[in-house]
Amino acid sequence: MSYINTEEKGSARVMHKDYNNTAAGWANESIAIAVAELLDSINKLYDKNPERFENSETSFSIADFGCATGGASITPLRTIIDRVRQINPDKEIHVYLEDLPENRFDLAFMTVQEGLKDYKGVFIMAAGKDFSQQVFPNKFLDVSFSSLTAMILPSHPAPLDDNLFFLVNTENAETERGQKWIEGLTKHWAQFMHSRKAELKKDGLLFVTVSVNHNPNKDYQIKENEFYHELVSQVVKKVLAKYNAEDKIASCMKTTISAYKEHFLDVCNSIPDMHVISSNDFDVKDIFYHEYVETRDQKTFGKYVTGLIQGWWGGVLEGGLAQQGMDQETIKEISKEVFEILPEFVENHINTYPEYYNLLTLAVVRTD
Ligand SMILES: C[S@@+](CC[C@H](N)C(=O)[O-])C[C@H]1O[C@@H](n2cnc3c(N)ncnc32)[C@H](O)[C@@H]1O
């Protein structure tokens, strides 16, 4: 008897196995900006509760929610560990890598173990569970960290067939579809916050980064909307049509929403005993676009951006089609075709490619 539902092949949320090589460098640009905020929050934690850091009898526990294959976990983990060890070189540290059960934890372990191998007394473990629910025991964690993950919803709150993900803007925010997406985010984010609160010790820190949209959209966000809209209509729809699978388009889109900063903050402020200690947003450089500006090498740009998109969407495309009951052979053909066409599409759409993305860093402390 099997305890695993083998009917559900793939998942529409986890990252591609090549995420570290294709997308983690791009994501790490946001980490480079966020670490200063993270360090500042850890210092505030120390000021509030020095005993937590100075006592060598207890361990210090850190969880990374949505670790994927670990390529973007090392810098934030090292930032926290270095600060803790600066205060107390003997402090034992427990690191928990967290993601959905179907995530490639093998790759995450290899990457993070390698990235932290020079520390003694740092123990790396993992938890595979949907983080909408409580993952760790009550009052268990000192620091919960999550980068570019909490804006991924468990499912599509309303059908989406014209963009790879939902970007809130002044035109769609008040529509029925926009309202459903915002309600979906509010529900998911509130669940996330309540679950993280339960796991945090008193004075524990939740540090989250999410991509957000400005109200009204910044110029590069207007471009972003156009770029991904055209990608769907000119590439994805055409390939699906070739396989008589146009009706499956909505299942291939991400469940990600790029909402306004207020949508996240309003929920944080409604959770009792969770106090926002900082919330800032930054324009993060798209590393591939900025390299292209230097080199003017369109081919390399097309290749890198295709890799990036495959990193965060390839698994969703294949998983979404599998959930619709499509056979694996056809799925592989569709995926291959889409990612073969993409480099040229990207090369021809540099003028609408977004030069930046907007990142919200949120630091929240449990006060009770
Ligand atoms: C865009 S990747 C971000 C990876 C990495 N943190 C970074 O900064 O590059 C999002 C990750 O969140 C995970 N994820 C999405 N929804 C989740 C959920 N409900 N529970 C646990 N993990 C989730 C995905 O599987 C994926 O690995």
Automatic annotation (TrEMBL):
GO terms for biological process: methylation. Keywords: Magnesium, Metal-binding, Methyltransferase, Transferase. This is Sam dependent carboxyl methyltransferase. InterPro entries: MeTrfase_7, MeTrfase_capping, SAM-dependent_MTases_sf. The keyword Disulfide bond does not apply. Gene3D superfamilies: Methyltransferase, alpha-helical capping domain, Vaccinia Virus protein VP39. Coiled coil: none annotated. It comes from Stylonychia lemnae (Ciliate). One of its GO terms (molecular function) is methyltransferase activity. It holds the Pfam family Methyltransf_7. It comes from the Eukaryota.
